[in-house]
């Protein structure tokens, strides 16, 4: 097997990034002007924040991008010393072949508050020689003074058809044999996270010569969507014992964790609401019940007991 496909197939140009057209179109203006303000990329994992930052740096800085680009993962180097030493020393150096340098801080929402305040000071002092790109999952964890100094770009989960297009491209490049349902399962489990989808695809290719729906399920260790859907529908029709048996099959025989089952139940119920297969009042009641079950399991309650109790809530809305 070749190296990690996430890195191997990482786009190097803004126009090649999938699912974030609105953002990349705005960023292209900075490329044309060869200048940019401080930026903040925020959104869920695996939607292209790091890839976009790298592609933007390469496009603006050109052939000298390596000498003028500093990448730090703030979850590893999260203290105030990182800001005072690594970042300050980099900003003090004169740009090579470009008008400014770029500092990319990934997962900056994991930085301590003291480090964030120190970072704010560095952003003020080196505005003429350096620009910052900050990446985070939760912008609410970033102090207001930093947010006010950045142009904020909010990334959204990548749409299913765009993930499918990317996976098929990689499968073609790697000469993989696959079933169409396997790709659909990948999209279901990835939930808009392209990185997760590519990693599952690579792992599946190492297990079997042909990538199938079953091989995908074995890799992710989650229940089949049709099993979850069947359990929900059976419970809604009032057949508790049959729904309970399906739950037992999923948990005991397939080895799916309670938290994963709750998340999959939520996904399926949400889709049923979107397709108008259940009433609005029923959906609200079920979501409240699912959230209560999720909280109890995360607090340490027995997952099987809680999930069986959740099924009784489905019966109540029969």
Helical fraction = 55-70%
Please state roughly what percent of the residues sit in beta strands, choosing from under 5%, 5-15%, 15-25%, 25-35%, 35-45% or over 45%: 5-15%
How many structural domains in the coordinates? Answer: 3
Given the structure, what is the number of helices?
15
Number of strands: 7
Return Rg in Å: 23 Å
Primary descriptors:
318 residues; Rossmann fold; Zinc Finger, Delta Prime, domain 3; two-stranded parallel ribbon; 15 helices; alpha/beta; 9% strand
Structural commentary:
The chain is of the alpha/beta class. It folds into 3 domains: 5-154, Rossmann fold (3-Layer(aba) Sandwich); 160-220, Helicase, Ruva Protein, domain 3, CATH 1.10.8.60; 225-316, Zinc Finger, Delta Prime, domain 3. It is 58% helix and 9% strand. The chain has 15 helices and 7 strands. The chain has helices at 5-8, 21-33, 49-61, 80-92, 113-125, 144-147, 160-173, 180-190, 194-207, 213-220, 225-236, 240-253, 258-274, 280-298, 303-316, and strands spanning 39-42, 69-73, 101-106, 130-136, 151-154, 177-178, 210-211. The strands form 2 sheets. It has a 5-stranded parallel sheet, with helices on both faces. The chain has a two-stranded parallel sheet with strand order 6-7. β2 (69-73), α4 and β3 form a beta-alpha-beta unit. α8 runs parallel beside α10 (213-220), α11 packs antiparallel against α12 (240-253) and α13 (258-274) packs antiparallel against α14. It is elongated and about 70 Å long. The N and C termini lie far apart (50 Å). The model has no long low-confidence stretch (mean pLDDT 88).
């Amino acid at each position: 097997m070749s190296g990690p496909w996430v890195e191997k197939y990482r786009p190097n140009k803004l126009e090649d990034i999938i699912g974030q057209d609105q953002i990349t179109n705005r960023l292209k203006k900075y490329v044309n002007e060869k200048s940019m303000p401080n930026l903040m990329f925020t959104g869920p994992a695996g939607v292209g924040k790091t890839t976009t930052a790298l592609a933007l740096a390469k496009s603006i800085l050109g052939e000298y991008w390596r000498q003028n680009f500093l990448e730090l993962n703030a979850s590893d180097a999260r203290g105030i010393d990182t800001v005072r030493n690594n970042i300050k020393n980099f900003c003090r150096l004169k740009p090579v072949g470009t008008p400014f340098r770029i500092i990319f801080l990934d997962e900056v929402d994991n930085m301590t508050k003291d480090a964030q305040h120190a970072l704010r000071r560095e952003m003020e002092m080196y505005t003429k020689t350096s620009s910052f790109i900050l990446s985070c999952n939760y912008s609410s964890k970033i102090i207001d003074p930093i947010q006010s100094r950045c142009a904020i770009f909010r990334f959204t989960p990548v749409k299913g058809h765009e993930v499918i297009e990317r996976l098929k491209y990689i499968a073609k490049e790697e000469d993989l044999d696959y079933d169409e349902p396997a790709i659909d399962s990948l999209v279901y489990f990835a939930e808009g996270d392209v990185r997760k989808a590519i990693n599952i695809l690579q792992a599946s290719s190492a297990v079997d010569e042909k990538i199938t729906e079953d091989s995908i399920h074995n890799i992710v260790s989650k229940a089949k969507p049709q099993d979850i859907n069947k359990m929900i529908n059976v419970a809604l029709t009032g057949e508790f014992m049959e729904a309970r048996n399906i739950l037992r099959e999923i948990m005991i025989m397939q080895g799916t964790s309670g938290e994963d089952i709750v998340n999959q139940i939520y996904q399926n119920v949400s889709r049923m609401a979107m397709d108008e297969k259940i009433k609005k009042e029923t959906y609200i009641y079920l979501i409240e019940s699912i959230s209560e079950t999720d909280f109890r399991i995360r607090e340490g309650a027995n997952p099987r007991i809680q999930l069986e109790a959740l099924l009784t809530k489905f019966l109540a809305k029969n």
